[in-house]
Design goal:
7-stranded antiparallel β-sheet, 5 helices, alpha+beta, glutamine amidotransferase (chains A, B), 6-stranded antiparallel β-sheet, about 260 residues, Ntn_hydrolases_N (chains A, B), homodimer, Glutamine Phosphoribosylpyrophosphate, subunit 1, domain 1, EgtC-like (chains A, B)
Amino acid sequence: MCQLLGMNCNTPTDIVFSFTGFATRSQEHADGFGIAFFEGKGARLFVDPQAALHSPVADLVRRYPIRSTNVIAHIRKATQGETRLENCHPFVRELWGRYWVFAHNGDLKGYAPHLHAAFRPVGDTDSEAAFCWLMQELAKNHARVPTPEQLTDTLTELVPQVARHGTFNFMLSNGHALWAHCSTHLHYLVREHPFRPARLQDEDLSVNFAELASPQDRVAVIVTEPLTRDEAWTAFAPGELIAFVDGQPLRRPARP
Amino acid sequence: MCQLLGMNCNTPTDIVFSFTGFATRSQEHADGFGIAFFEGKGARLFVDPQAALHSPVADLVRRYPIRSTNVIAHIRKATQGETRLENCHPFVRELWGRYWVFAHNGDLKGYAPHLHAAFRPVGDTDSEAAFCWLMQELAKNHARVPTPEQLTDTLTELVPQVARHGTFNFMLSNGHALWAHCSTHLHYLVREHPFRPARLQDEDLSVNFAELASPQDRVAVIVTEPLTRDEAWTAFAPGELIAFVDGQPLRRPARP
């Protein structure tokens, strides 16, 4: 089973602390890793078919504090598709002049969507096929970049059509919002004022966010399994889709 | 003026030696750098709005010998578009289930192509607009990945329509072939058996390829200005487009 890590912030923030805890888990997820950072509309993608524990690319990510408002990371335990670079998550495509980044955890059995438009998989994973199908259908539903609210409505209609094929925990971001969908395991927390110290679950490393963050900073961290021991993580319900904007879940009026 | 570096090989080869010489030139090209590596159908893209001389990402590329059959690198002196991540070359798009990587050196004045299909620029450079237009027109001309010969014919028709707007030195690769087009400055050489030592033009560094390469290896290196002092570089003619496959220019029968 793969693991996912996402971050959505109201201020560009580095993910070094959370990524360090996350990458430690890659001993049992030895089939590659990847991480995508948005900086404005631009995106950087680092992928490596080596395990994050041994990869020089992961080492760079741990040492180079890239400040980003939206990050999606993935460590891979191959279920479908060989351990090749083109099968490493996250995947990136361009739509409406924006980059879209996607990573998936789970297994979609016998999933072969009808891809008739401008998005085709390069590798042979179920995950990239699902991403291409979502992009194809989003492109049909909107003529230009929709608001996070509009896109959430469209995803709410599309996602169950994929999720019925198996486990579909995923994260998607366009550099503005980050959408996370849970089939089985996904947790999040919002770090905001007053900040407190936190200690990593799997490593003897702690950080006092009160010393690092400004009172107005807000960061949402979304991850397969909680990363820290002393913070209150909220579990997603199965089937739940949450859009994160400016470091918190998007609050919306109840629909009629 | 930006600088371009490309490599096309018949065997996965690391570009550390050539990139080291190339990155040295970035003192006067301080507006970012980028490099894309194909490994099979997969691609890795490293971009940084910092100059290659000071970038931790460039440092990784110099120290981590990534073996690739097709590489495109770019160091940037901004002419159009701000120094932002989304304006860093190379650019990547997917078409026909393959990644396409593009980098440009030059300046296209008043260039605003009609982009009506699935490829839109994310940043605001003339270069990314030209790439999107080429992708759009290639998609119209072929239903699936064409052979290097077929794609060369299509590019031969398309490229002058862009080049009449200004300087259009570029490199394009799909991980199989690498196309290089020269408006003003571009040079190439083929390293093959018998291999000899070479000394970098701008740095006191030499390498003896005879000790590193196997007799059957063949590598084409394409660059704005020659990288080494003691090798015979061939200058492109203005307007010349060359496709490189398996480490050498594509030989083709004369067309009737």
